[in-house]
Model the fold of this input.
Amino acid sequence: MPALSPTMERGNIVKWLKKEGETVRAGEALCEIKTDKAIVTFDSNEDGVLAKIMVEEGTKDVSLGSLIALLVAEGEDWNQVEIPSQVRPPSPAPTVPAPKELAAVLASTSDRVQHSAGRGEVRLSPAARHILQMHGIEPGSTPPTGPRGIFTKEDALNMLRHKGSTSAPRVAATVPVKAPQAASSAPSHTRPSTSTVSIPGQPMASGTFTEIPASTVRRVIAQRLTESKSTVPHSYASIDCNIEQVLKTKKQLAIDDIKVSVNDFIIKAAAITLKQMPDVNSTWSSGGPRQLSSIDISVAVATDHGLVTPIIQDAASKGIEEISTTIKVLAKKAKAGKLLPEEYQGGSFSISNLGMFGINEFSAVINPPQACILAIGQLRRDLTASVDDEGNPSLCQRDMMIVTLSSDSRVVDDERASQFLENFRLNLENPYRLALH
Done:
């Protein structure tokens, strides 16, 4: 199993493109492997004959370095290939116990904490449990005296006194012991000493849950987000942008049958701003900031398997229409899981747009080692006061949008972040300026 992406730890065999006994040439597609981000074709590194497929189609979570197939040189008897003794097929993923099996386990666990006389479950305090385990005795018939039927430390020490134990701890002589109460006086509203264990597959039953297996993409996203929030010092700043000119330009282009979106203008404005402020177009490494020469914009795309960020390479040199065409192709491939590694690996700056989902404003998590991510809110129409050339006040409507920059304070300080947002606003509010680049 090869490593087909930097963050890949396991892979799924989607489809074998060659059959056992077929000749394979170097560079020919051997199989399709689903990595943590996409389905990638794995090409053979040498000529030979596919003698044995070790991992069948549909197998999931195959560890890197595991043997998935055997090739032999042409002319050799591939039917008599010798399988290395130290190699074993990948062990299946652990299965969740069936409800009946799990119920049996719960019953045996419950039996261990019940009275020998069948009086019900006993709730032990930590100190009482330690004393009883140290002396190897059971609660027996001694009634608990603690609140809500808890068997307390005093109950345990009192039990040792009645048994005449010579190994009771010295603290027993100095700790006041409560007199035992009659069994009938014990609280009737006792709670079980063990928490309710849920059984998968019964979501409607009280105290149960449904186990949802995490996909490889989900696991990587969780790992990356946790790493980002715990290691990267996030700083946030927001600005309001007037996009009336963007909407007018969009309508003018539509007349000429050029269909672009507001997000395409946002990508272009961000790229031009990075070109004006190259120090923001940086990543963080162990040695410090690294300023990148190419402006590659990662655009967040939601898929059924999770969030994927295909990259628009050298976005500053592309026009609005070319950016629109490129992002449509990449988004389609991302949703189909057909992105190539070079189409989603790397990037110098990210953009996440939740405005289309009705989100007014939000803060996004930085995608390490990048230093910034721009969060785009939805378009809104504000009623504001304005003054004409003659000084007459009036009310007018404006199309506005809030954008929020999350920046790595080690690379982009607050002053640079504020300046970036101001330059971005000016570029976005003047579409003709974008057309000049």
